[in-house]
């Protein structure tokens, strides 16, 4: 009997220890920020721009909860709100990230929640002067995930986010995820998260990169009054915002920003980005246009895929780093405009040699470009760490300042395994 009473007393006591729902929130009590943009403010140090769903049908998203000039859903002033397709954009100038978020909370009628923020956009102007303070504040925010995708916007982040509207389906978050995954299918831009950028930015053995985002005004489209490109110009030779295209979607992800520390120092086009990813062992697949007038009508169209992981070895001789990189690829011939007899092993071997030498030359050119700017965006320094017994020795060597003196040798192994659907020439 006493045991029963004690047991009941124990159960009654544990009820007071169970968590309650005092801090529960309804789903529409908060607004989930899907995209965050940061520019240099005019009236303060930071200009924060957020994009979020209005929780209305697209046809009813007139004001979207934002105040300012954009209540009609068709646009807005630079400093006002903007809403379209069920999403709204609000901007505010503030002295810091955290106070700016408080100011946003006071203006959008809901508490802003950043646990679902998939994309963070930083302006090129900020990157050219240094991002250390901005990245530090962002990464220390308790709701922003390190897995958020990081973009560098040409022009302003505010304008880029305003131009970002779903044109396939209605979910921006789903569009972000699928679009960013195209990095693995095309190689025209890298896959860079907030956490990865921060780690490379502060690393003693590597430098950071970031995907470039831009608004395309379609002026480069040859049929729309733009300057016509030369025939057989490789598609990857263009830079962000200059791709000759036209359509409903004005924004594009293309190319790579190179950093030294927290400062942007250079930009790569689409093809250079592919070669960068090959050296970083992040390239999956892509179609390359290889100039070869002697064996085809202008170009060889080759589908290139990673065959094996890229191997990097570093030896330090008389304080000079000697780097050897082995890139292994396999390819499939895509175009029929070639004089190569595909049944002739010797001619196929010559085709492989032409493609291999082209890729090797482009890889060497990219390494030299980065070496002159003293920015090891390839991660060679990670392999160099094996030459040191202690972390202190590695720090004292100062790899990031010595990369410009390195000697880099690149080897390429390319095997053309398929000739597409061609069975005879």
Which features does this protein show?
single chain, 425 residues, alpha/beta, 9-stranded mixed beta sheet, 4-stranded mixed beta sheet, 12 helices, 15 strands, globular
Low-confidence stretches: 58-81
The tally of strands reads: 15
Proportion of residues in extended strands = 25-35%
Mean pLDDT: 84
Structure report:
This protein has 425 residues and is an alpha/beta fold. It has 12 helices and 15 strands. Strands 4-5-3-2-7-8-9-10-11 form a 9-stranded mixed sheet. A 4-stranded mixed sheet has the order 12-13-14-15.
Short characterization:
By secondary structure, this protein is of the alpha/beta class. It contains twelve helices and 15 strands.
Compile the SSE list and pairings.
Elements: H1 2-15, E1 30-32, E2 35-40, E3 46-53, E4 82-84, E5 87-94, H2 97-105, E6 111-113, E7 119-123, H3 124-129, H4 132-139, E8 149-153, H5 157-163, H6 172-186, H7 194-202, E9 209-215, E10 251-260, E11 263-268, H8 270-279, E12 285-291, E13 299-317, E14 320-333, H9 345-372, H10 380-384, H11 391-397, H12 399-402, E15 407-418
Parallel strand pairs: 1-6, 2-7, 7-8, 8-9, 14-15
Antiparallel strand pairs: 2-3, 3-5, 4-5, 9-10, 10-11, 12-13, 13-14
Helix pairs in contact: 4-7, 8-9
